[in-house]
Amino acid sequence: MKVECKNNFKIFYSFLNRGLSLRVQDAFNFAQNNATEYFKKFDGDNMSVRIKDNAVWVVAKSRVHFYKDLTWLDQVQGETYTTMVKAAKIETETKFTNENGDVVFAITHQHCPLNMETRRIIRVDDITFPKDMELDPSLFEDDYLKMRDTFDEEDFVYEQKAYSQDIDYSNHVNNVAYIRFMMNALTNDYIDSIKITDAEIHYLAESKEGQVLRIYKKDLDNEMRFLIKEVEREIIRASVRYEKK
Questions:
Q1: DSSP class of residue 32?
Q2: Which of 77, 213, 224, 227 has the fewest beta carbons closer than 10 A?
């Protein structure tokens, strides 16, 4: 089964940082919106599977690679497709191309089906997803990173409470909200001095409205590693790679 989902996106002013470059969290928002519509094509979106299967899709890992900068009024087309299906997870990828057909950035999501009652991962066969889904090759050739860094209080940046507007239909903090929390650990002057090329996020546990999250950051060579915790429970680990301007 081949499922096609393409949409056009315009880079509006509200999607930009102060340097007029597309913000990382808004790039992920574009991909999340296109992927949700992709799932809707076969009635596998969260609104549908929550009713039919008492389950939702949650993101376990995601990553982005930026090939080119995007700025105000640029237009791109997003296309989502499936690149992998395994027993308890699938991967979708959304590539964004400009008017010349060049890929400007690509984002992949590793999705797992979650039972809404037990909040435990279930099998893909237990949720609505085509068994004959056609697979496309991924633009990402490297394996996911191994992020086992040790963080201490010297790496602590700030605390962030999870509020109602951070919560999504799955009744937990949306994956894009964590990216915003990470980017808020950086100053505008620092963001102006770098060009982000890659980001990878591993979602380790859920967090809910009212919980207080602690954001940690460790600097490496042309890379930042992040940890977000709720008390001692790890919520995400992430990497952001960049080039200096």
A1: H
A2: 77
Are 84 and 90 within 8 A, CB to CB?
Answer: yes
3-state DSSP of 131-198? CCCCCCCCCCCCCCCCCCCCCCHHHEEEEEECCHHHECCCCCECHHHHHHHHHCCCCHHHHHCEEEEE
pTM over 0.90: yes
Tokens linked to 225 = 């590693």
Q: What is the pLDDT of residues 35-57, one digit of tens each?
A: 999 999 999 999 999 999 999 99
Residue with tokens 């100053």: 187
Distance set, CA 35 to CA 5, 78, 146 (Å): 8, 9, 26
Digit-coded pLDDT (tens) for 51-97: 999 999 999 999 999 999 999 999 999 999 999 999 999 999 999 99
Q: Which two tokens stand for residue 65?
A: 């690679």
* Domains along the sequence of the chain with CATH: 1-143 (3.10.129.10), 145-245 (3.10.129.10)
**Residues β-bridged to residue 84:** 91
SS3 sequence of 35-85: HHHHHHCCCCCHHHHHHHHCEEEEEEEEEEEECCCCCCCCEEEEEEEEEEE
- Tell me if 31 sits within 8 A of 66, measured CB to CB: no
The Cα–Cα gap between 192 and 194 comes to 6
